Amino acid sequence: MSITLRLRTAPGLRLDLRGVLPSVLAALDVSAIEKLPLGLGRETVPLAEFFDVQRQGDEARLVLQGDLSRCDRIGWQMAGGSLLVEGAVGDWLAAGMTEGLVQVHGSARDLAGCEMVGGELQVDGDVGDFAASAQPGSMDGMRGGVFNVRGSVGQRFADRMRRGTVFVHGDAGDFFASRLVAGTIAIAGRIGAHPGYGMRRGSLVFVGPAPALPDTTVAAIVGTPVIWQLLARSLQRRGGAFSGLAQRAVRRHLGDLAVGGRGEWLLTN
Amino acid sequence: MIHDGLIRNGVVIDDTFAEAFPMKATRILITAHNMTWARHAAVSATGFATSVIACGCEAGIERELSPDETPDGRPGIAILLFAMSGKELAKQIERRMGQCVLTCPTTAMYAGIAEGEAVALGRNLRFFGDGWQISKLIDGVRYWRVPVMDGEFVAQETTAITKAVGGGNLLLLARDTDSALAAAEAAVSAMRRGPNVVMPFPGGVVRSGSKVGSKYPALMASTNEAFCPTLYGIAPKTQLTAETACVMEIVIDGLTEADVSTAMRAGLDAGIALGAASGLLRISAGNYGGKLGPFHFHLHQLMGVAS
User: Fold this and answer.
1) Do residues B279 and B176 lie in contact, with contact meaning Cβ atoms separated by under 8 Å?
2) Which of A11-25, A178-192, A244-258, B285-299 comes out lowest in average pLDDT?
3) Do B154 and A227 touch (CB under 8 A)?
C-alpha cells in the first residue's frame, strides 16, 4: 500500500523527518501516522501539522510531495522499502541508509547519502556539499550501496568514502573524492580544484572531459583490461554518458602518491 | 554371469545399472588473452584429477566459452570439479587455482555457479599480492586484483559449491582394441556435447575399471577381474565371452542425476550407431549391488525399455 505525505506549507524552521520511513509507516494507520512526532527547531510537532496523509493503491512505498527543501533527514537510516520524494529535499538525505530505494525528483542539500551503507539512492537534480561523505567527526564516509546523481555535486563529494558505487552525471565541486579510502566513483562532467586530494585507494572513472591530473599522480605503464571490462560493463548499464564504456580505451593513473598512491584514475577521453 | 540383453544394431545392451554416488561440485570459468592460454590453464588445473581415490577430486573441461559468454569478454573455458565433501573440494580449488591458474599467463577466473555454499576462490590467493592486492566490489560481487608480472590477476572472491552426482559409467565390450577405442571415443565425443558433465579420465576413458576393495588390506580399490580379458578362463567369475578381447569404461560426473542420465544415453546412442559391425559387442555398466550409492542408472530404462 502506498502512503503519501503531502507538505501543506513550508516550515519556518528546519523540519526533521527522521523516523518517517516506509517500514515504520506501513505498520501504522492514518491517525497514528498523523501523530508521529517531528522535530521543528527545538520543538516537537505532530506530523499532521505540516502534512496531509493519504493511503492508496497496492504499491508498498512512501511518497513525499511538495517542496521539502527545509526538511532534513529524509530516509535517515532507512533499512528497507521504497521512498519517493516528488520535490527538493534538505540536508542528510538517506544518510546512514542500509537497504531499500530512495528516489528524489528534485535536488538535495548537503550531506546526501553520507555514511550510506547499502541500498540505492537516486537524485534527479543536484546535491550539495559533502554528499557520500562522513558525518562531522566520523572516520568513514559512504560504506556501501549505489548513489546515482543525475545533476551536479558540490564540494568535498565522497570525502572519506570507503565502499560502494557512485555515479555523477553532471559536474563536481572542489576536493572531489578527497581522502577517498576505497569504492568506485564514475563522473561524466567536469571537476573542481584538488580532486583526489589525499586519496588512498579506490577508483575514479572519468567518462567526460579528462581532468587536470595533480602532480601527486603517476601514469601506469600497463593497463588493467580485465578489471576494466568488469567495471565498465557494470557502469555502462546506467546509460547516458556511461553508455558504451566497455568499448572505450582507458588510461590509468595512480595516486595520491602522498598517501601511498594505490588509488586509480581511469580516464576514457 | 552375462546379463540378459536388449539388442540394438547388433549391440547387446545389458540389463544392468550404473551405480553413482553423491558428490560436491563447482564450476569455474577461466578466461585468458586467447583460447590457447585459457586452455593451458584449464588443462593444468584439471590435471591429475581422474579419481577421488587418490587425486582428491575429479575434474575436467566442460566446454569452451566464446568471448560473449564470459564476464570479461575474453575467450574462456568452463571446468567442473567434483569431490566427496565440500571441505575437500574447497582445498582442491585453492590448490589447483593457485598453482595452475594464478600462475598461467593472462588468466582470470570467476565462479561458474551462483547458487550454493560459497567457498574461497580468490579470497585466500589474494595474499600472494603481499599487500599490493586490491579488492573491487562490482554489482555485489567482490573481485581480487593481484599484481603479477604480466599485469594483474583477477579472481572472483568465492565460488559456489553444489550437490552433484559422481560415478555414472558405461562399459564398452569390444572385439579388439581398435574397436573398443573407436566406440569409447565416439561415446565420449557425444557426451561432451551436453552441459554439466565431465568425463574425468584420460580422454574420458578408463581401462582400469575397479572393484571396491582388494585382497591387500591397504588398497581401497583393485582391478575388476570379471571384466579383464586376460583373466578369462582363469578368474573364478567373468562377465566376458570368449570373443570379447577389450573393455573400456567411461566414467561420468554431473551436476545432477538428469545430467548424468542424458550423458549416458548419448554414449549409448553413439555406441549403437557404430553397431556390432564396428566390433562393439556389448554395452554394460558397473555397480556394486546397490551398496555404493543411491543413484542407479538402469541401461534399459535409459533406452526407454522397462526392465
Assistant:
1) yes
2) B285-299
3) yes
Sheet holding A15-16, edge to edge: A43-46, A37-40, A15-16, A71-72
Chain B positions in Cβ-Cβ contact with residue A226 (cut-off 8 Å): 31, 72, 74, 108, 151-152, 154
The full set of domain ranges for chain B reads 5-20+164-302, 23-162
Whether residue B151 and residue A233 make contact (CB cut-off 8 A), yes or no, is: no
Helix (H, G, I), strand (E, B) or coil at B17: strand
Nearest chain A residue to B71 by CA distance is A230
Q: What is the ipTM of this complex?
A: 0.93
The strand pair at B108-111 and B141-148 is best described as: unpaired
Give the residue numbers in A contacting B (CB under 8 Å), as ranges. 163-165, 182, 184, 201, 203, 222-227, 229-231, 233-234, 246, 262
Confidence band, pLDDT 50/70/90 cuts, at residue B2: low
Contact A246 B152 (CB under 8 A): no
- Candidates B14, B9, B3, B22; CA nearest to B170 is B14
CATH fold, domain A73-267, is Pectate Lyase C-like (2.160.20)
- Considering Cα of B135, then B136, then B137, then B142, what sign does the dihedral take? negative
Q: Does B23-162 match B5-20+164-302 at the fold level?
A: yes
Alpha carbons within 13 angstroms on the beta-carbon side of residue A143 total 14
Q: How many CB pairs under 8 A join A and B?
A: 48
In chain B, DSSP assigns E strands to 5-8, 11-14, 17-31, 58-65, 76-83, 108-111, 117-120, 134-138, 141-148, 151-156, 158-174, 197-198, 210-212, 221-223, 246-254, 280-284, 295-298
Q: What is the mean pLDDT of residues A61-82?
A: 97
**B291/B270 Cα distance (integer angstroms):** 29
A262 CB neighbours in chain B (<8 A) are 132, 134
pLDDT at site B1 = 47
CB atoms closer than 10 angstroms to residue A13: 12
Specify whether domain B23-162 bears CATH 3.40.50.360.
Answer: no
- Considering the entire predicted model, what is its pTM? 0.94
Residue A25 near residue A81, CB atoms below 8 Å:
no
Q: Which residues of B touch A (CB under 8 A)?
A: 31, 71-74, 108, 132, 134-139, 143, 145, 151-152, 154
Distance from CA of B147 to the nearest CA of A (A): 10
* CATH class held by domain B5-20+164-302: alpha beta
In chain A, what are the domain boundaries?
1-60, 73-267
Share of chain A above pLDDT 70, in %: 99
Interface test with A, best of B141, B152, B157 (most A CBs within 10 A): B152
Cα radius of gyration (chain B): 21
Are A50 and A8 spatial neighbours (Cβ–Cβ below 8 Å)? yes
Percent helix, strand, coil in chain B, to 5, is 30, 35, 35
Q: Do A230 and B138 touch (CB under 8 A)?
A: yes
Min Cα distance B173 → chain A (Å) is 48
